[in-house]
Structures are given as C-alpha cells and as structure tokens.
Automatic annotation (TrEMBL):
<keyword id="KW-0472">Membrane</keyword>
<feature type="transmembrane region" description="Helical">
    <location>
        <begin position="383"/>
        <end position="404"/>
    </location>
</feature>
<dbReference type="Pfam" id="PF07690">
    <property type="entry name" value="MFS_1"/>
</dbReference>
<dbReference type="InterPro" id="IPR036259">
    <property type="entry name" value="MFS_trans_sf"/>
</dbReference>
<feature type="transmembrane region" description="Helical">
    <location>
        <begin position="356"/>
        <end position="377"/>
    </location>
</feature>
<keyword id="KW-1003">Cell membrane</keyword>
<feature type="transmembrane region" description="Helical">
    <location>
        <begin position="110"/>
        <end position="136"/>
    </location>
</feature>
<feature type="transmembrane region" description="Helical">
    <location>
        <begin position="174"/>
        <end position="193"/>
    </location>
</feature>
<keyword id="KW-0812">Transmembrane</keyword>
<dbReference type="InterPro" id="IPR011701">
    <property type="entry name" value="MFS"/>
</dbReference>
<dbReference type="GO" id="GO:0005886">
    <property type="term" value="C:plasma membrane"/>
</dbReference>
<feature type="transmembrane region" description="Helical">
    <location>
        <begin position="83"/>
        <end position="104"/>
    </location>
</feature>
<feature type="transmembrane region" description="Helical">
    <location>
        <begin position="148"/>
        <end position="168"/>
    </location>
</feature>
<feature type="transmembrane region" description="Helical">
    <location>
        <begin position="20"/>
        <end position="43"/>
    </location>
</feature>
<protein>
    <submittedName>
        <fullName>MFS transporter</fullName>
    </submittedName>
</protein>
<dbReference type="InterPro" id="IPR020846">
    <property type="entry name" value="MFS_dom"/>
</dbReference>
<keyword id="KW-1133">Transmembrane helix</keyword>
Length: 415
C-alpha cells in the first residue's frame, strides 16, 4: 500500500474538491478534442496537404514522448496543484496565439512552434493529473474516481469533435481553436478552486541533499519501482504487447468500413461514436466490477472479452455489427485500463507516483507506433479480417499468460 495514503470516507458525489476537479478535467478534455479537429482542418484549409497534417502530428507526438520522460520528476518535485494550473495557463496562451496571429495572415510555421510545445505541456499535465487523483479521491475511492473521470472524458471525446466540426464549419477553424483556449482557462480556474491540502505529498525520506546531483537516478526511479513490484512489472510487460497489437485497431476499423463495406465518412463517425459509448459504459461499471470480482478476475476477464470482440470485428458483415463489437471492445479496454491505473495509484508511494506514471506510459507506448504500422501494412496486404483474427488471438494469449502470473490476485493492493 502506498505510504502516507489513507482512504477517504464518504461518497465522491459529496466531495466538493473532487467534483470541481472532475468538472475542470472534463472541460480540459473537451478542449483537447476541439484542437483534435480544428488544427488538422486549419492545416488542410491552408496547405491542402495531408503530408503536412501527418508531419505536424508526428512532431507534436515526438515532443509529447520526450516530455513524458521528465514529466514524472516534475510531478513529484513540485506542488501538483500549481503545476496543473501552470500547464493550463501555458496551453491557454499557446492556443490563443494561433487565432490572434491568424487574424493578420496565415502562418503555418506558427503551428510547428505551438503544437509541439502544447503537446509537451499536455503530457506534463496528464502525468501530474494521474498523480493528483490518488490524493484527491483517497485509496479506497480511486477506482471509482478514475471511472467517473474516464466516463466524462469519453463523453467529451464524442461531443467535442462534433461541436468543433460545427463551429469550424460556420466560423472557421480558428474559432474552434479559440474555444479550445478558453476551455483551458476554465480548467485552471476549476483546479484553483480546490484546496491545496488535497494535493499535498509527504517528501520521500531519501529526497534530501544525498539525492542532489543524480538527475538520471531520479528519472529512472519510476521504472525501478515498476519492475520491483511483481504485479506492476508483469502488467507493464503484458500491456506493452497489448498496445503493440491494438494501438492501430481504430485505423483498421475505419479501413474495414470504408474499403470492405463501402461506407461513407458519416457512417464511420457514427460507428466511432457508438464505440465511445462503450468506453463510457465500461468506465461507469469498472468500480462495481472490481469490487465484485477483484482485480485479477476483472483485468483478465476484460482481456478475454476484448480478444473475442476483436475476433468478432473481423467476422462482422454489417455496420451495426462492427459498431456493437467496437463498443464491447472499448468497454473492456476501459475496465482493464482503469483497473491497471488504479492499482498503480494504490500501491505506489505518493512521492513516486508521477515518475512511476511517466515510466509506465513511456514503456507502455514504446511498441505502439511500430504495431500500428504493422497492422496497417497487414490490412492492406492480407486484409482487415486477418489482422483482426491475429490481434484477437494475441489478446487471448496475453490473458492466458496473465492467469499464470501474480496479476491473477484478487487484491494485490493489500500485499
């Protein structure tokens, strides 16, 4: 059990600080989803180049990964409340710069300056946010808290791009980016209204002068903790292979709908919207599922159903069949992902949580881009059905392996 952490009594629905934080993060996610649509539209309108869109996305993604290496140290060494507010304010300024400059002419170079910086700051925000949730919710309520946060994030992920498309269509992409910037101001205000004591973290016993001058040791502390803890070590390895086989699945679903089933872009949007509903359902059910079944059965069971859902995606011959299995798959991904994140928050000492989160995400996503490229190549040369079958069987194999590891424990947080 994480040192210095105690369960918080009562319902989260009556916890003023958590509810304000919850609303603030929902607004932040909604802002991100506006940028997800508005920025590519802005690039496409100005350059007409899909290559420029891909290049900008790649540069921003690289900045995010690099920032992730250092984000954990920042989250563990600075006041997390102030750090969250600072990240929101910086992103507000960065995104507000775009419509202001665009009012005097189109400057694509500005996007290459703003987007990587915003992505890097966004990664620091995300790591700090995960580290802060444990203190805000308390160990006994962290799974419920993550479920609530994920559910509204999924809802924002459905509604945000839709509204962004409407705003961009009527007033232009810069108007949507302006709304994005404003959402960060509201998010910062929300965090400001919460009590600073809820973010307090007791310093590590070894965090004094003896550790000064050892920055790389600080960066590696999160990875060392992950691999010393048997359940977290196994989860990190298994999930790294899981992301290799699944990061590109959304692309393959789109490919199947467009190429195999001959559907329009609007139908693709509807299917992905139905899938996001699955994410919401899984997020709302995860706390009850884990209380009833325990960690191991919940995580392994979600992996088994995920694998079966992926297999079914390859066999579904109708749009609604694809939508239903996509929703089932994403619901299970939510259950497994929230269980995994909640366990890390429960067993990691508070002073290490930022670095552990950062290390996990860095390791977890390291194989993802390669896997996404491999899935895309496989769909084009071997067909989408083959890719779904291989990915589905791989997930079932990972679930079987997990059954023979410490992951199968019902209550590993009590060990």
């Amino acid at each position: 059990m994480g040192a210095g952490r105690s369960p918080q009594p009562g319902s989260l629905w009556r916890d003023r600080d958590f509810l304000i934080f919850w609303c603030a993060q929902t607004l932040s996610v909604a802002g991100d989803s506006f940028a997800l649509i508005a920025v590519p539209l802005l690039v496409l309108n100005v350059t007409g180049s899909a290559t420029q869109m891909g290049l900008l996305t790649g540069v921003a993604g690289t900045a995010s990964v690099v920032a992730g290496v250092f984000a954990g140290v920042l989250a563990d060494r600075f006041d997390r409340r102030r750090l969250l507010i600072a990240c929101d304010v910086i992103r507000l300024v960065l995104f507000a710069t775009i419509p202001v400059v665009w009012a005097f002419g189109t400057h694509v170079w500005l996007l290459y300056a703003v987007l990587p910086l915003a992505s890097a700051v966004g990664m620091v925000f995300q790591v700090t946010y995960v580290a802060a949730v444990g203190g805000l919710a308390g160990e006994g309520r962290v799974t419920e808290a993550n479920g609530m946060l994920y559910a509204t994030a999924a809802a924002a992920g459905v509604l945000g791009p839709t509204l962004a498309g409407v705003v961009a269509g009527h007033f232009g992409p810069t108007a949507a980016i302006t709304i994005n910037a404003a959402s960060f101001a509201l998010s910062a205000l929300g965090v400001l209204l919460t009590r600073s004591s809820r973010y307090a973290v007791e310093p590590a016993q070894d965090a004094g002068p003896a550790r000064e001058g050892r920055p790389w040791r600080e960066l590696l502390a999160g990875a060392e903790f992950l691999f010393r803890q048997p359940v977290l070590r196994t989860l990190t390895i298994l999930l790294s292979f899981f992301i290799f086989m699944t990061l590109g699945l959304t692309d393959i679903v789109i490919y199947r709908l467009k190429h195999d089933l001959g559907q329009t872009d609007s139908v693709v949007g509807v299917v992905l919207g139905v899938g996001a509903v699955g994410t919401m359902v899984g997020s709302m059910l995860v706390a009850r599922v884990r209380r009833t079944l325990g960690f191991g059965p919940s995580w392994i069971g979600a992996q088994v159903v995920s694998g079966l859902a992926i297999l079914s995606l390859g066999l579904a011959g109708s749009v609604w069949g694809v939508a239903a299995f996509m929703a089932l798959y994403l619901a299970c991904v939510s259950v497994a992902g929230i269980c995994s994140m909640s366990l890390r928050q429960q067993v990691t000492p508070p002073h290490l949580l930022g670095r552990v989160t950062s290390a996990f995400w860095t390791i977890h996503f390291s194989l993802g881009p390669v896997g996404a490229a491999a899935l895309g190549w496989g769909a084009e040369h071997r067909g989408a059905t083959t890719v779904f079958v291989v990915a589905g069987v791989s997930c079932l194999v990972l679930a079987l392996i997990a059954f023979f590891t410490p992951v199968r424990q019902r209550d590993p947080e009590r060990a």
